[in-house]
Description:
2 helices, membrane, transmembrane, LPXTG cell wall anchor domain-containing protein, transmembrane helix
Amino acid sequence: MTTVPSTAALLADIAPDPGGSDGSLVAVLLxxxxxxxxxxxxxxxxxxxxxxxxxxxxDTR
Length: 61
């Protein structure tokens, strides 16, 4: 009689170990989140500046 390996054993042969990245994935995700947060902050700052001075900006004619 042959034994069938469990699903976890099959996935262990295919998928990498989640802890094997030494935190580099966490660092990349934190860096990406920081870039996005900075971009959102700059966009909000620019909108606030345009609202404070309605005579400036590229849409003025």
